[in-house]
């Protein structure tokens, strides 16, 4: 046992407020893993919520584990030395290993953590001596298939109602001395949001498309139904553990909504977590009171924070309590005199806006519902209220994108800068615009799920053009993804079970994606660069969300019609 690591983890725990530490040996033991570093994982409210839900069950204890920092890996002297934070117990001694999966690019870390814990990577190679490996989170909910061979069970969708049901099924199964397979069969039958990959078989056509997804036993559900929680006021989702060594250490994080009423065509939040739900002012105010006992800044988190009908009232309440509000990003058309004034009063110096596209044609195609006038007006209001740093989010590689659409991004950014300088004349000087350039990646459960990823080499040229346009201007900063990792993300977003072979090869080759793609007899381009047919079975079609596939098809057909009309020659 590595005593240096144990001492480090114990010291980390002493810095935290709110950690839950139960007596080892008196409960069913679960360890919750975030497949990235501690400083990142501890800012994830979903991760913290699952930690609390597990520990709220009287018969369970839940501890945490994260991807070791690069310097920590050198401290591992042998297998199975991955330790939990709370009791510094080896991960392979827990009954359950649960992964919180938010981002596809973290999938290789899942295999790394399993290996560090001394747990067989493939679920088919595990037995009762190893923990039950389960997964959940937005990435798995959209498409669990690339990870199917590595997980015993997925619990998809929102966890507040489904996870307690699972713990009761698990506890009853243990008392009845059920074997692992029988317990998983029972879970699949009794828990609507459960998905046991080994209980479903995939049949492929000669062209490598999916011909059929079927259960291997009678009585199992044909589809996994994602049931959104109707009353989110029945529980609160806020920071459980406050820790100093995190990305947002100065803020108490608090969720104000789920889902989104806008349904932008590229965004999964508007389709998977329907309907849009907003917590009541009263519940949020009570959570603010708790948060301000710990920190002076409240981070308001959600997929549509600026659409909350009482956002102004919430921000005013935080101010009356001598606190400050933090808001990640705001919809352009929700910024008015009141909101911009409240942002200034809360000491916010940087605001993020998401035009998403430079041209009106592409914004309409995405169904953003905003105009250039809306963007300019929002920027002017922010500058007038002495918010002198703007962050602008743009996507490139969108369907039907032309070179003039890239020029439109550059021109819009310059126009915002010009107006900002005019409106800050004689006041505190306008400081900066950060352009965050991200490649459009088709996501499951959205109307654009049938699209192909734009060629990453072409996208790279477009990024370089934007960077060059602002290269010598000190007020501009351009940040962007690395195109090759966008390819990987698309592969892991849109792939089926065969992509798991690539993941396994990447792990065995210590992260060498190029070599893995050459060695594995799976055509990655088939998933990434191919526009899917509307009548084909997609890997994630086993999952049934609130928005039927038929509605997504109709929306996608509208996209094609709008593209056709936008390029129709005029007489």
Low-confidence stretches: none
Structural class: alpha/beta
User: Rounded to an integer, what's the Rg over CA atoms?
Assistant: 24 Å
User: What is the mean pLDDT?
Assistant: 94
User: What is the CA-CA span between the terminal residues?
Assistant: 78 Å
Helical content band: 25-40%
Query: What's the shape?
Result: globular
Task: Classify the beta-strand content into a percent band.
Answer: 15-25%
Tally of individual helices: 21
- Which strands sit side by side, in order, in the main sheet? 2-1-3-4-5-6
Q: How many DSSP-defined strands?
A: 19
Number of domains: 2
Please outline the major beta sheet: 6 strands, mixed
Describe this structure in words.
With 571 residues, the chain is of the alpha/beta class. The chain folds into two domains: 3-225, no CATH class; 349-571, Transcription Regulator spoIIAA (2-Layer Sandwich), CATH 3.30.750.200. It has helices at residues 3-15, 38-41, 45-56, 70-73, 107-116, 138-142, 159-175, 180-190, 269-272, 281-292, 311-320, 337-345, 360-365, 372-384, 403-423, 456-469, 483-494, 499-508, 513-519, 524-528, 549-566, and strands spanning 28-34, 60-66, 96-100, 132-136, 153-155, 194-195, 200-204, 210-215, 224-225, 251-255, 257-258, 277-278, 297-301, 324-327, 350-356, 389-396, 432-439, 476-480, 543-544. The strands form six sheets. A six-stranded mixed β-sheet has the order 2-1-3-4-5-6. Strands 15-16-17-18 form a four-stranded parallel β-sheet, with helices on one face. The longest helix is centred in the last third of the chain and has 21 residues, at 403-423.
């Amino acid at each position: 046992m590595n005593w240096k690591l144990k001492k480090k983890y114990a010291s980390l725990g002493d810095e935290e407020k709110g950690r839950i530490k139960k007596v080892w040996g008196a409960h069913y033991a679960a360890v919750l893993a975030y497949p990235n570093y501690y400083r990142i994982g501890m800012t994830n409210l979903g991760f913290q919520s699952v930690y609390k839900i597990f520990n709220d069950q009287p018969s369970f204890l839940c501890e945490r584990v994260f991807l070791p920092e690069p310097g920590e890996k050198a401290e591992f002297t042998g297998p199975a030395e991955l330790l939990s934070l709370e009791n510094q117990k080896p991960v392979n001694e827990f009954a359950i290993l649960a992964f919180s999966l938010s981002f596809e690019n973290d999938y290789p870390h899942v295999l790394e953590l399993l290996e560090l814990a001394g747990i067989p990577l493939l679920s088919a190679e595990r037995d009762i001596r190893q923990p039950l490996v389960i997964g959940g989170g937005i990435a798995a909910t959209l498409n669990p298939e690339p990870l199917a061979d590595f997980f015993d069970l997925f619990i998809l969708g929102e966890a507040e109602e489904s996870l307690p049901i699972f713990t009761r099924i698990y506890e009853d199964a243990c008392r009845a001395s059920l074997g692992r397979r029988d317990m998983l069969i029972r879970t699949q039958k009794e828990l609507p949001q459960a998905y046991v990959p080994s209980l479903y078989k995939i049949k492929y056509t000669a062209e490598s498309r999916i011909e059929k997804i079927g259960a291997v036993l009678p009585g199992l559900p044909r589809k996994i139904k994602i049931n959104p929680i109707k009353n989110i006021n029945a529980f609160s989702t806020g920071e459980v553990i406050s820790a100093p060594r995190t990305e947002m250490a100065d803020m108490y994080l608090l969720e104000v909504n789920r889902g989104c009423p806008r349904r932008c065509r590229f965004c999964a939040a508007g389709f998977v977590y329907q309907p849009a739900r907003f917590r009541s002012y009263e519940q949020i105010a009570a959570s603010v009171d708790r948060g301000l006992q710990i920190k002076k800044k409240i981070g308001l988190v959600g997929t549509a924070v600026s659409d909350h009908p009482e956002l102004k009232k919430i921000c005013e309440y935080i101010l009356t309590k001598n606190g400050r509000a933090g808001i990640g990003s705001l919809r352009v058309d929700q910024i008015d005199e009141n909101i911009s004034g409240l942002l200034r009063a809360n000491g916010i110096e940087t605001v993020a806006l998401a035009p998403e596209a430079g041209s009106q044609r592409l914004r309409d195609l995405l169904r953003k519902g905003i105009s250039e006038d809306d963007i300019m007006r929002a920027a002017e209001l922010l500058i007038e209220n002495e918010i002198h740093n703007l962050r602008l989010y743009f996507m490139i590689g969108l369907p039907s994108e032309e070179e003039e659409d890239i020029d439109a991004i550059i021109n819009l950014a310059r126009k915002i800068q010009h107006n900002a300088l005019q409106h800050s004349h004689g006041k505190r000087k306008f400081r900066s615009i950060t352009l965050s350039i991200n490649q459009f990646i088709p996501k499951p459960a959205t109307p654009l799920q049938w699209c192909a990823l734009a060629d990453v080499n072409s996208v790279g040229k477009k990024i370089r053009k934007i960077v060059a346009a602002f290269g010598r201007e000190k007020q501009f900063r351009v940040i962007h993804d690395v195109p090759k990792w966008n390819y990987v993300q698309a592969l892991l977003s849109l792939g089926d079970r065969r992509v798991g072979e690539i993941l396994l090869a990447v792990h065995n080759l210590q992260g060498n994606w190029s070599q893995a793609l050459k060695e594995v007899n799976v055509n990655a381009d088939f998933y990434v660069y191919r526009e899917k047919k509307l009548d084909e079975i997609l890997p994630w079609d086993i999952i049934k969300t609130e928005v039927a596939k038929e509605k997504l098809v109709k929306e996608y057909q509208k996209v094609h019609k709008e593209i056709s009309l936008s390029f129709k020659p005029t007489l």
